[in-house]
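Hey, sorry to bother you again with one of my protein questions. There's a protein on my desk that I can't quite get my head around. No rush at all, and the record is pasted right below.
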Amino acid sequence: MTSRSTDSSASRRAGKERLTDDDVYDFALRVSYLSYLVTAKAQETTAANDDTKEKDRDRDLPHHSRISGAISNSFNSLGDLFKDPTREGQKSVKFPDKLFKVLDLRMQNIAMGKDAQFNDQYLRRVIAVFWGSLKATEKQSPRDAPSPWRQIKENRKIEELILFFVTTASQTLRKDPTLTGDDWKMELNSQIAHFVLILRECLRNVTHVPPEITSRLELYTVKLTENTAAVSSPKPSLQRNGGSEATIRMSRVGGNIEDMALVVTVGKLFKRSTQELQHDVDALKRFCSEDAAVVDLKTCLKNINSDMPFPGRRDDFESMEAYTLWRTQELAHLSQLILFMLQYNPNLAKSAPSDGTQQPMLQRPNSIRVDPDPDLSSQNGLILGNAAIDDDDIEAGNNFTYIPPNPKKFYKRLLELCVQDDLEAMINLPEDQEVSLGILSSKHLSLINECALRWRVTHSYRVTCFLDVVRYKYERDEVPIECLPEGLHLVEKAMQDLDIHKWPRVDVDYLSTIYGGLFNIFLGTLYEAFEDISKLTMAHIAPYIDILKTVRDSRLIDRYTADIEARLKDLADRVRIQAVHLYTDKNYELTMQSAGQIALPLLLLTDHLEKQARLLDKRFSEPILGQLDLVSLTLESQMPLFLTDLENARIDLLDASRGKTPSVPILDMFALFRRTRTLLSMHEAFCPSSPLHFDIAGFFEPYVLQWLLTTDMQTAQWVHTAITIDKFEPEGPEGHSSSIIDLFENLKSPVDFLLDLKWPDDHQEARFFTSLSKTAAKLIEEYSRRVEDLFMEEMFPRVVQEVQPVKQFGFIEKAKLTIAGEKKVEPFNFTSSSCVKLNNVDAARGLLDQMYAKIDVDRVTQVLATGTPPPPEKQDRQRFLFTVKVVQAEGLTSQDTSTAGKLDTFVTLSDEKGTRLAKTRTVYETVNPRWDETFDVSVQSPLWLMSSVRDRVLIGKHDTIGRGYLCLDPKRFGDYLTHDLWLDLDPGGRILLRVSMEGEKDDAQFYFGRAFRSLKRAEGDMIRVIIDKMGSTIRLYLSRSVLAALVKTSTIGYDYNKALAGMTGLYRNAIGADKADSVIPLPAKDKPNRRPEQLSDEQIEDAIAPLFDYFDANFQTLNSSLSTTTRQTVMNKVWKEVMATLEALLVPPMSDAPSDMSPLSEKEVDIVFKWLKFLKDYTYANGEGPVPLEQLQNQRYRDLLSIRLYYDWHTDDLMEECVRLLQHTLKEEPTVKKRAKSVYSQRNLGTIKERKRVKKQETQQGNSEMILRILRMRPGTKEFIAQQFAVASSASTQQEGRSRTSRAQDASLIPPVPPVPNFNR
């Protein structure tokens, strides 16, 4: 190596030659040699002081006393020496976190005697106590008082760490018995010097140590050396006039490179042999000296004040604030380095700049202020720096000995070489040897830190350069990606310590360029990673993402926004392309696997797409870099392709799903709908800015309609199956059987199915539920009809002969039955099976109401009413629902004289073609029958009905008593009112039909109303049969014949109290009462009269004793088998039948013609009302019966009691009272007639209960009808009765006219009644 003087360095700076490794080697060797010059002398001085200390121990006490003053002064100056520089206004500088780990290992090795360099017994003991005390305070609870260790870890100030060592060492050495007197103080200075040296060596193994920390430790080393020298011998006087007396105690530096650690490191780094290295070091000695180092530092100070480019000037910074901060810190740092050099070798203050030779500098009096006293503080460095700038012999410029022409460029190359050398060494390590966590080794760290210190390389550039080198190595696959976070962390820490806006501009631009390069590199890496997104995981790209986020969050790449956006767009396009390829490949694979099938590949494809999207969402819950959402990009690319394939298969799917044996099951289509809907919802959630215009409701609507049609066709089978397997045995507390539960389970399944579909179109969903409601109504009507038929079979069992007669003698058997008296009344006993059927109807109402709420029928109807339906393909004519109630018939005549005027009649309703539409039950032995049965007839155009009254016979066809005709024309009943129509029968008599009409609508409320009405009518018909069965027995025992026999004869009375007590006990058992049965005594007023000519109560009771027996037998069955609601309804009807029977004994039925019925005598009337009282008490059973007293004493009961009031009135008084009550009734009636009860008023249990409540609140009018019935038995009242009927009819006609006017119905629009067609009879 040729010698390089400052002149030669200056000439190289002037040129722009290419940097070579030899150039880097030259200046690195210079800095390494300078480090040796400083470090070696300090160590030798310390060793010399140790020898002096050993000699001082052997001296006598007087000599020790002479140096005690010097020891005291040295010890007292430690507080000033390690004073926190921040208290003097300087910026707080923290040592790196990694120092704790390195220092911990070094302390353990020293305390255990494993460190050969520091094996002094005192030092090992002090280190053990010091480090043990620190570790002990580390384990204290956070709630305890703040510990020194916690404070040191938080502040990370080097002075606090040294002072804590001083405190621990003082306490330990003072207790040592081998150190007497002030010997421990001398040992303390030595231990502190050793500790500072340990800190310096530990910091060399830590990356990027702030230069201020290194400078302070160097200064502390010099101060401690002087303190040790002052203690070991009297303080020498410093001669300023030349000479070497000031350094007489310093050992001379040797020239062997084996003692030069950094020099050896440089030699190995640049592959120099020992001879070459020794030769180059010897050549450096001519111009590399401490004097030259001081001159370089002074030149830097001069350049700063002269605003020279190096080491920095105002133009290098963005703001004046940033420049001022850098200038202040740089001047202080340079001053500290100069102070360190001068205090280390005071003779340097006398030397002057040379021309490159190692000549002593010319003395300039008062040019430098030097104070060699041991108590010189760090503040003197600033004073020294300011004084040093005044050295006129130092010129500003680029003439340096140790600083290369382009320090940053040299530093970068040196760093590259160090990193490369460490990487090669790491590759050649044995497999079982532990690898360092850092990239740089400790020796190379020491080298680059020393070079950065001497070359004045800023900390911001150092961390940026390190990141750049690591990036460069990573690009060439020389280092793993795990090395990059270390460099990024150093940059982030540097930006935290000093705001990046206060960095030099060139460093900021340099870092921005590196960040931009890193961003491009890892965007490219992501591009390659997106080759197969199905196998991509976050763990695979997490390191790239972390680096990209760190770079992006720094905001240093904002200048490359356009380029970054373009690269991110390329990444998004990459994902889209890969998603398309994945979809195409998967679709082809599934199509090949499912050859010949249409729906299966689509089903499997939707399953694949959903799982893929969910997997990507799980792996990448957040968009990459906040912009690349893999789920969104994938769905955005794949969903349009899938929907296109689905649309292309529309016709094939429809064709394959129809027919008796469809190749595509309808359930597969619904599964396809659910998965498609899920994919569409996922697309909507992840891709809100890319909406898809696909009508999923319209695509799958045909399949729902087909499924609804199939469901509707299954209703008959459901009803048949449920009834077939039902044994009609009570199951549950309400006494219903299994069929109704099975039926509603079948009906519940499609309801749940539709709800689970979560159909996206509310209007279509409402139409679906409307169709299903229609199916439910159809199901309920069919079930009601079948159960009612079974019930009727039990009520009217067919007579089965044990031996079937021969066919030709069948008429003889019928004749025998007729002769034997077929119409003989026999009490009918009910069975629990019949009660269960009635309970099923009641249970169906509750279950149907639950379904009403589950479907939310009101909302469904509202949606249909407010939504915009699609235009119908064909406008169908509206249908109307007529409600025809067969009320009663009058004046029927029999064509058979053998029947003695008694008829067993029923009514049939037939259309024009002779098709039977309805049939009533049979009412026996009366010419004025009352059926009160209601039927529904749906019409689209005017329809003629033929009402046929027939007499039931055992042999041959039933006789026709008469026929009447009615035209059901929607235009004639457009007022929607109830019309009472009397039809004249041919050949005689008449029949009352009550007709009302309402529009038949296609909505859910209407269908549920029909279903509830079907159940109510079935229940009413069944209860009516029960009442008819019981009514025949009631009429048998509550008859005029029994009454006449009772008046004529006198018998032992029936034990009324016994019967009443039996009834009470019966109902107590039903309701679970545990109190004993009680006998209800007769009131005093009801006790039998003592007069023998009068009938006693016992005799009156005894006359109806069989009726009580009949009630006892059947009420027990009804009470134990019927549900609570049904039982109460039946008992109410029984009570009404009892009152009607008693009423029929007193007065004839209502009619406008006189009656041939004779009134009862007063005695007979008394008996009738006593029967009423006995039966009421029997039914009430002291409050334990099924009917409350309020219902027993209803309006009809009060009307019946009123008969007794009017029964003996004079005819004229009755007429006058009748007129008054009728006028009052007409005044109280509303002016407008109410509309008929519609289906909508019965659509659920809530509306049914509301209607009953309103009906119950209606005021009851006067009993003019009862007076008219009494007048029918009076002579000469025919005209009056006819007149009253005419007045009532006229009032009704006027009311109906007002109703039509209020509805703006033009009477001219009502068509005339068409002629009666020729019925097929």
